[in-house]
Design a protein that fits this description.
It is a single chain. This protein is α/β, with parallel strands linked by helices. About 30% of the residues lie in helices and about 25% in strands. The protein contains 9 helices and 8 strands. It has an 8-stranded mixed beta sheet, with helices on both faces. Helix 1 runs parallel beside helix 8. The protein is globular and about 60 Å long. The N and C termini lie far apart (about 60 Å).
C-alpha cells in the first residue's frame, strides 16, 4: 500500500492536457456561480457569427458550443495545448492563432462578431481592436484573490500574480477602449478538496497561484492539511470570479 507521501508525489507529477480538471472528479466540489457562462455565450452567439475564443486550452469548452467550424477561430499560447489543438481541433476547420504572448498579435483587426474569453489573459485594447463595430465581448475571469488563503498557507510571502485583475479595473479598461459594459458581476464561491492529493495536483497545475510548489518542500504543511481532512472531511478555499458582457460601440 502506498504511503501518503508516495501518493502526494505521484499527484505532483501528473500532467494536464488541454484545460480540464477531470482528474479531480469526485475529489473536489465547486459552489455554483450566480451566472452560467455557457448559457450567456449561447444567448449571444449567432449561427452566422465569426467567433474568436481566446486562450481556448484544449478546446473543451469551445467545442461544446457546436459552432460552425469555418466561422470559429481560437487562440492558445501553451505549446502542449497548441500541439493538441493541431491534432484534435484544427482538422475540423477551426482556425488557430498561436499566441504565446497572449496579446492577439497575429489576430486581424475588426474581424469578429463575438469574442469570448473564459479564464484567459485579457488584453482589453486588443480585444476591442479585433472586434467589428457592435461586436460582443464576453468573459469570465479568475480574480486577483483566487485561492489566496490556500496560496498564503503554503507561502507566507505569496502575492497574487495578477493583483490588478479585478472587476472594477477591467470594467474601466473596457470603457476606455470603447466597449460598453452591458452586464458585470463578481462572486466569491467556496471550493472544497476532499483529499490532500487533490490539493497537490491543483497546486502543481496552477503555478501562478502556487509558485515553485514542491511536495517535498511542503510535507509538514501537507500533513497539517491531512489533519484537517481527518477531522472535518475537507479543505475549503474560495474562488474569485467575475463576469463582463460588453459591446463595441
Amino acid at each position: 500500500m502506498k504511503t501518503a507521501e508516495e501518493t502526494w508525489l505521484e499527484e505532483g507529477n501528473q500532467a494536464m492536457q488541454g484545460w480540464n480538471f477531470e482528474h479531480l472528479d469526485g475529489r473536489w466540489k465547486n459552489e455554483s456561480l450566480p451566472w452560467n457562462y455557457s448559457k450567456i455565450v449561447q444567448r449571444y452567439l449567432q449561427a452566422t457569427d465569426i467567433w474568436l475564443d481566446m486562450d481556448t486550452g484544449g478546446g473543451e469548452l469551445m467545442t461544446s458550443f457546436q459552432h460552425d467550424s469555418q466561422r470559429t477561430y481560437i487562440t492558445e499560447g501553451w505549446d502542449s495545448n497548441i500541439e493538441f489543438l493541431k491534432q484534435k481541433v484544427v482538422p475540423s476547420g477551426v482556425t488557430l492563432y498561436e499566441d504565446p504572448t497572449e496579446n492577439l498579435n497575429s489576430v486581424p483587426d475588426s474581424k469578429f462578431d463575438i469574442v469570448t474569453n473564459c479564464h484567459g489573459a485579457m488584453p482589453v485594447s486588443e480585444i476591442s481592436r479585433v472586434l467589428k463595430e457592435s461586436g460582443m465581448f464576453i468573459t469570465e475571469q479568475v480574480g486577483a484573490t483566487n485561492n489566496f488563503s490556500l496560496s498564503r498557507f503554503f507561502r507566507d510571502d505569496y502575492q497574487p500574480a495578477y493583483p490588478d485583475n479585478t472587476l472594477v479595473n477591467n470594467v474601466i479598461a473596457c470603457q476606455k477602449v470603447g466597449l460598453k459594459v452591458l452586464k458585470s458581476d463578481v462572486s466569491f464561491s467556496k471550493m472544497s478538496f476532499f483529499d490532500v492529493g487533490a490539493v497537490v495536483y491543483y497546486a502543481t497545475v496552477i503555478p501562478w497561484e502556487f509558485p515553485n510548489f514542491d511536495v517535498r518542500d511542503n510535507l509538514s504543511k501537507l500533513y497539517e492539511l491531512q489533519n484537517i481532512i481527518d477531522q472535518t472531511g475537507q479543505i475549503d478555499t474560495y474562488e474569485d470570479r467575475f463576469l463582463i458582457v460588453a459591446r463595441k460601440q
